[in-house]
Amino acid sequence: MGTVGSFLRSNDDVQHIPIEMKPRGKLGLGRVGSIVGRKPKGGSLRSALSIELENAETERIKREFEMYRLDKENDIANWLKKEKKLEQENKRMRSELLALQKMCTKLRNERDAAFQAEQRALARAASFECDRDKVQRRFKIYRETAEFELQNVLRDRRNLENKVTKYAAGLMIEDGDSTSRFLPDGGTLGEKSTASKYVCTNNQGDWWSEPSLGSSIQLHQPTYLRGPEFALTIMELEGPFTNVNKEDWSCALANLNQNKDKQLNINVNRLMRIYLSAPRNMSHEVHIFVKEYVPVLKSLCEKEGRSLLLIHYLERHQNSRQKQIETSSVLVAFLGQSLDGESCIDVKALMKDTTITKPTVLLCKNQEDKCVYENEIGVKLKEFNNVTVIPEYHSPQQAAELLYNTLDKILKNDLGIDKVKPDPEQTDINYMCGGILWDINYDNEQAEALAYASDSTCQLGFDKYYEKLNNHVSAAGPYPPLLIMGTSGSGRSLLLSKWVEQQKEKNPNCLVLYHFVDKESSVSADPILMIRRLSSQLMQQINNPPVLSNDSTRLVEDFPRWLEKISSKSPGGTILVLDSIDRFQQAELHLKWLLDPLPVDTRVIVSVHEHTCPQVWRSWPTLQLELLDTKSVQEVLWSELSAHEIILTNVNESKILSRCQNLGSCTPLYIILIAAYIISLSSDLNILLSSLTCEQLYISMIGLLERDFETPEHEGMIKLILKYMCVSRNGIEENELFGLIPDLTWMFLIPVLDVLATTHIIKYHSGVLTFAHHAAMKGVNELCFGSSGSEQILDIQQELIDYHTQYLLPGSVTCRIVDELPWLLRQAGDRNKLQECLLNLCIFQRLYTRGRASELLTYWQYLDIDKNKMATSYFTSAKQTEEEKGLSTLPLIADLYETLGRFLNDLVLLNQALPPLQRALEIRETALDPDHPMVGRALHQLARLHAQWGKYSIAEALFKQALEIYENAYGFEHEMVAKEVESLANLYQKQNKHDVAEPLRKRALSIKRRIKSIQNVSKLQRRTLHLEELALGPESPDLARTLNELGVLYYLQNDWETSESFFKRSLEMRENLLGKDHLDLAQSLNNLAALFNDKKMYDKAEPLYERALQIRLKHLSPDSASVSNIIRHLSMVYRKQNKFEKAEPLYIQGVEIREKCFGVNHPSVATALVNLAVLYSQQNKYHEAEPAYEKALKIYEDSLGSHNPRVAETLRNLAVMKYEQKDFETAARLYKRATEIKESEANYTNKVLSRRSSSGETNSTIKNILHPS
Description:
Blueprint: E1 7-10, E2 13-16, H1 32-37, H2 45-159, H3 164-170, H4 246-267, E3 271-277, H5 283-303, E4 307-311, H6 318-327, E5 330-335, H7 341-350, H8 353-356, E6 360-364, H9 370-374, H10 376-382, E7 387-390, H11 396-415, H12 439-453, H13 462-474, E8 482-486, H14 492-506, E9 511-516, H15 527-539, H16 552-569, E10 574-579, H17 587-590, E11 602-609, E12 622-624, H18 630-642, H19 650-659, H20 668-680, H21 686-689, H22 694-709, H23 717-727, H24 734-740, H25 746-758, E13 762-765, E14 768-771, H26 774-784, H27 790-805, H28 815-828, H29 831-838, H30 841-849, H31 853-862, H32 867-883, H33 890-906, H34 910-927, H35 933-949, H36 952-970, H37 975-990, H38 994-1031, H39 1037-1052, H40 1056-1074, H41 1079-1094, H42 1098-1115, H43 1121-1136, H44 1140-1158, H45 1163-1178, H46 1182-1200, H47 1205-1220, H48 1224-1245, H49 1261-1266
Parallel strand pairs: 3-4, 3-5, 5-6, 6-7, 8-11, 8-12, 9-10, 10-11
Antiparallel strand pairs: 1-2, 13-14
């Protein structure tokens, strides 16, 4: 502790002083004890000094302390000031930091806004570029449309090759304004303008341009862009052959659609029916033919995806025999001196005009039997070219052989098989399994379904429905599907089919796609197959379509894109009609794209049963089909009966009307069934009228048929036939019925099938017997199996399985087996046999090549086998097939390996795909020459695999090796070479080797262009020969039109001499038939003049144009497009011959016509003024040319803008004129402005405008349109 003096008080606070005072003893004071123990002696000096020294030290310490205290207080005050100052500085810096943060946020937002603005600007720039390029893309749309029409015509001609007589009889083509389907009237085949004195095509100072006389911009306008509604368009059509207006194309497309319908009616049936008639004394010939040669003919048809049915029975049923003759494809009759009653019936039927158009074969036994042919029957038959007569034979074996040879030729002609064996290197046909790509038959089946659905006179009340359908189609903007809803038998399919036919006829520019669904288990109910078929039809609308994918997911994803792409190109848009979509398998899953917004130019119409419609579809616009009232029932009934000239008694009519009062009987189907029963049978109606629904009505009708037709020996056969139809997937063929029912005879089958078809219980669908209506199938199923018929169904399934299984051999697997057997095995639940069936490589190949890979995968998923195990199983099966000698040849085994490799490659199982493709290559190199084209094909498949694998170096080497093989085998100008070059270019493109890929791509394109005309000639060669044979027959307007079209086609092949001969023959024939002033004659005159114009034979073209102009002025208005085009082309011919005095009034007239049609400020008027000014300049009439130039320039600037290329061309022309007038200053100023416009356009588009004068020498205009550079 310190002393007392160590604490001082200041303001009542005790403060500690850090300096302690020394103890007293240390100040010189004595000890206390010494003082106390002594006797005090007075005070000493020493003690007094001690006290004084102590006080002084205290004072000093106090002063020091006070100074110290004050110093520290000052320090504290200073530190407090600094602290306060630092706090203020901190606050200031914090506020500055907040301000900087706000500024940073603001700058970041401004940066984001600027970026977004940049993106919007780029989007606007892209939109502007798209709008700017829209004009230049128009010509491509027109070219593709024209080429598509030509391709359709070529396809029709090729498919109808074997139906020449029928085609000629059914060809009803009407010209719209005398317009050919191929060649627009009034057009010329080429425009090659002579160079004027103002043109210097090789000089940079060549300013002269005549935009209306062949400029490429003018050729880009679609032909349907005509009239004042396109008053703001910048495009002009001035080239020959480009003057087709919208009405002309509509007429041409309508005629083309008519031809397509006729083609489908002829070729849609895949069942070839041969009706054979022979007297009983010639049964030996028939027996040999049936036993030895019919199987060969069946195999021939099966290889082409068709079936053959030989009908021959001796029973005497005149009506049945008559119907069989009418429905047969080929007729065969053995004739002798004595004909029995049945043969007489057949011969009389053959004499009818309706059957004599079919191929007919007549066989006479010997020379004595010729008398039958020389009689009245023979004379009538001899008048027709399609009758083949075998005058004599010496033995039954020879007769059978001669008949086989004749039918072989007829069937090959009908099937479209060339006489020369097809080159196996250029086809993927696998003859081991007897099959080809059969996708076309899916289209044929749908066409037949449309024809059957519309085959009714009942259209009562459909007008109001038609109006709603038309309003839906014509509505603007994107629109959801229209849902047609009704009960069973309410006429949904009938309404859609009738409306589709009307739409095709009234709106030929519109692409109409349709799909009708049969029962839920049929192939038509497969949504993936439907999407694949419709995608294929959409792809046909473009040139060089891509390969159709086998991936179901990709198909579903790409289909809406194809709809949008094609709809935007089609002038009338696209209409998609889907009937009974509620029967699709997993409809809601695979038709999700219907819920998404549809393309603007696409309209979708679907129909469903009101009880099975999913809830998600009910939000769409709905058209509800109403039930029939009493008056409507009566009209429908009389409409159906009057078509067969049957009058209904009042009693029966009252019975029917009184019965049709409930929901199930007030439908069109119910009334049609009642009428069909009255037409076919004459039994009492009371039994039928006791039925309340269509299903019950079908059951009652079948019961009556059993009562009328079944005898004890045929008891139960009608139900048995119907059972087979119920259990099968797509129906059943008549050949199969004979194999399944041993006691079945033609005598019983034909009348029963006739009545079943007449009463709308069954129908013939692509040669297969199936139910005519969904209600018929439900009624038959209830009648034959009921609620407890599962065991019967299993028995029937097993019978069908056993029947089809016996044909699981190479060369015997048909499309019917592929359709039925796997599906039946799955329904029966036999997994082992299903797996065995799928591992049959013929079944596999049939399914894969027909585009049904998704169905194949569905079967494997049902078996719970993954893709890897499936691939291993298929490769093992292929090896087993290879080891089983004698079943097939090595090239066919190689084909199987290749198909397997392609299938696994499509599934992206690259490791598993490699072994089969390598094995295919090994087999072909061993069995064939190493340089054989089939080896090249194997190399190509391997290269594709490695390219997909990313092994580009290996793929490149394989592609090059395949290319070398193709070049050695076919030469350098072959389609296979072009494909291989293109594949190699695509490979380089994937590696970003664009400098290497681009020359290859150009080479491939060049080869394709050169061989295109050659391919067209080869495809049309046989058809052309047939048409030339027709040309030797009687003259007719249709034949004259055909000759005119042939002239166009030969011109497209650059065969001008042949084209000229056809044009002249068409002209001569029309003069003889129609007279010298007929409007069609002007078309032939125009086309022939166009050909002469293209050959620069202007002296010959001039009188033809003049005569065509006179004819059209007599029939058409002077302001019509046809007259205007003739005037334009004639004026060009005059100008090319320097006949300016004749050309000038025509050019003036052309200006007046355009002013009247489009208005005085339309760009087409400016183009005509430029043409007139050019003519004035060529005559040195500068004072007349200058106002025309200035007026045209003003119109271009007002309508197109001051920086349009048309303005630049006009300025250049005007500059040249000023230069010729020695006004160099004005010429330089005008030329400078034109150059600035051209350079700005070139800088913007990265394209340099052509300096070649549009009035200079150019290629043929029609070629520029079809093959633009």
